[in-house]
Structures are given as C-alpha cells and as structure tokens.
C-alpha cells in the first residue's frame, strides 16, 4: 500500500497526507494556494494570536480570512488562556477553516514570553486544558502541533501526544527536533516512533523532510502523514515530487529559470492581495529560497531586494535565462 493516501482527521477526510506546515510570515493565502496546486493535501496557515483575536486586532482577524482556493486549510492559533483559545478556535471555524491547530512548539522568544509556543511543553496539564477548551468550542477537528522535547535527550513527545489525545485532539503534528534545535539538525526518528506508538490518533511528522528518501524514513517511524515547511519554499511542488519519488518515478528538479517564473507569479499575487508596498516587502523575505543556485544569484538577489515597484521587478526577472 502506498504511503501517500487519504487520511481521516476526526470528521475531516484529507485528500492526501502530505501537508504544508505552518510558517509565520510565509504560509499566507497566496502561498497556500500555490502549494495546493503543487500537490499538498492540506495547507496550514501561519499562526494567529488568540489574545489578539480576543481584543479585535485588525491584522490578526484578517489573517483568519480564507478563500475557496486555499482549502482545505488548517488554521493555527497560539495562546496561553483557555477562554481566548476557545474564542480564536470558534473564529477560525466561522471563517471556514477545516481544522484548527494549536501551536505548542514555536521556540521564538516573543511567543514564549507570552506564555505560548514551546513553553507550554513545561506544563502538560495546562496544555491539555487548552486543547480541551478548543475541542469543546468547535465542531471541526482540533490538532496539536508541538515538539519531541525542549532539550535534546529529554523526550516529552509521547506524554504530550497522549494528553492531546485524552483531551479530544484528532491528530498530533510532531516536530522531530527539540525546541533548542530550532530548525536545524537531524530529526530524532527514534523519539518520533515512540510518539507514534503512544497514541491511536494520527501523528504527522515534521522537521527536515526534503524529499522522498527522508519522507520514507518518517513513514517507517509510524507517521500517518507528513508536514513540509521550508522545503516547500522555493519548491511548492515538493508534495508532488515526494509522492512521485515514493512511487519510484524519476523527479526532475525545477531549474532556476522555472523557479524564478513561479516566484515572480507569487510576487504578483502578493501585490494583488496586499497592495504593492506590503506585497513586495513580504515577497523579499523568502528571496534566498527562490533565487539560488544559478550563476550570479547573489548579485541578482541583492539587486532584487532594493526594488520597490512590481514593474521594476518584472524587468529584472526578464534578464534570467
């Protein structure tokens, strides 16, 4: 049986089990739509502050907006208070999310100082209450995204997964690195296998999946599905590539010209979505992923990040051969 297949998350049936991982400042509407075209079964949105939603923050509320072309979508929220987590979960459901995901793995200091993200791993009982509050607040499935450990060697993943399951979570999204590792280093697949064995609900693996070979190792560890994040930036077709690779088909990587064409189209979508100033500014954050591995790439990126107008950017990209 193929590793890539439909997967049931609570009441929701996802078309496949290769999903886009949530990434702050990256997995917005235009990029989510692009990754769905690239074969993602579900796309996960950048995390939204439950506290900000509670106080009616305009930017955070806007981040909950979903168009039909971005579905199926999992909306990720973060916070430390049961009431606001429940409120944010309801807001995500009302705006069309298919799944609501609670972040308990982000290692960014700003998030941790607010009592959210990976610091929730220090108090599994409190984390369980947050999951339970969200589950009770909505009819759509609730998932938990966390990490196998805060520090290498002190594995918390199985306990956290078990608590999430007992509180009604429909799945666990497990980053197979410790929080102290951020986004570098090899994933701990042995620890991930322990997580998969600890619960009956689906476990999705995340962290360092860059192709079919690594994907197979995650599936061999017992994962029901996979989340790809940074590997999808610069190659939104990685989902299709992994599926083809696991099926034994030859993968033809994007050449630099085709990658630049896709990137320019994304920049144009960002401008249409946000307006020129913000759209161009957001696009520049990922330039290093898209504009690489071709002669003069560093100089090209340096010229690109100085531009502010879409027409000037189009003229620059026309020079790529």
Can you characterise this structure?
- The chain is α/β, with parallel strands linked by helices.
- The chain folds into 2 domains: 7-246, TIM Barrel; 256-317, Non-ribosomal Peptide Synthetase Peptidyl Carrier Protein, Chain A (Orthogonal Bundle).
- The chain has 15 helices and 11 strands.
- Strands 3, 4, 5, 6, 7, 8, 9, 10 and 11 form a 9-stranded parallel β-sheet that branches.
- Helix 4 packs parallel to helix 6 (124-137).
- The model has no long low-confidence stretch (mean pLDDT 94).
Show the helix and strand layout.
Elements: E1 7-9, E2 12-14, E3 18-20, H1 29-37, E4 43-44, E5 48-49, H2 50-54, H3 58-63, E6 73-78, H4 82-94, E7 99-104, H5 109-113, H6 124-137, E8 142-149, H7 157-166, E9 171-178, H8 189-198, E10 203-206, H9 212-220, E11 225-228, H10 238-246, H11 256-274, H12 276-284, H13 287-290, H14 297-304, H15 310-317
Helix pairs in contact: 1-11, 4-6, 6-7, 7-8, 9-10, 11-12, 11-15
């Amino acid at each position: 049986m193929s590793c890539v297949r439909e997967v049931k998350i609570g009441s929701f049936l996802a078309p496949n089990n290769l999903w886009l991982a949530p990434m702050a400042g990256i997995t917005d509407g235009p990029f989510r739509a692009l990754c769905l075209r690239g074969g993602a079964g579900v796309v996960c949105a950048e995390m939204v502050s439950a506290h900000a939603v509670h106080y009616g923050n305009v930017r955070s509320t806007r981040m909950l907006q979903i168009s039909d072309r971005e579905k199926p979508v999992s909306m990720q929220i973060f916070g430390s208070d049961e009431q606001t987590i429940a409120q944010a979960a309801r807001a995500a459901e009302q705006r069309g999310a298919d799944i609501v995901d609670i972040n308990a793995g982000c290692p960014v200091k700003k998030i941790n100082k607010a009592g959210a993200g990976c610091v929730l791993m220090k108090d599994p009982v409190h984390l369980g209450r947050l999951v339970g509050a969200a589950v009770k607040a909505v009819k759509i499935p609730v998932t938990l995204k966390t990490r196998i450990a805060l520090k290498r060697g002190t594995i918390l993943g199985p306990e956290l997964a078990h608590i999430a399951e007992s509180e009604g979570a429909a799945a666990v999204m497990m980053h197979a690195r410790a929080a102290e590792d951020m986004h570098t280093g090899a994933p701990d697949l042995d620890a991930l296998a322990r997580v998969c064995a600890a619960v009956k609900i689906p476990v999705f693996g995340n962290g360092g999946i860059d192709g079919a070979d690594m994907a197979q190792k995650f599936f061999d560890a017992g994962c029901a599905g996979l989340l790809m994040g940074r590997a999808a930036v610069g190659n939104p077709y990685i989902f299709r590539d992994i599926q083809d690779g696991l099926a034994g088909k030859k993968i033809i990587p994007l050449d630099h010209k085709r990658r630049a064409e896709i990137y320019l189209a994304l920049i144009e979508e960002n401008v249409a979505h946000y307006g020129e100033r913000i759209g161009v500014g957001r696009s520049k954050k990922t330039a290093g992923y898209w504009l690489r591995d071709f002669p003069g790439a560093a100089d090209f990126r340096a010229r690109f990040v100085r531009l502010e107008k879409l027409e000037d950017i189009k003229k620059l990209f026309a020079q790529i051969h």
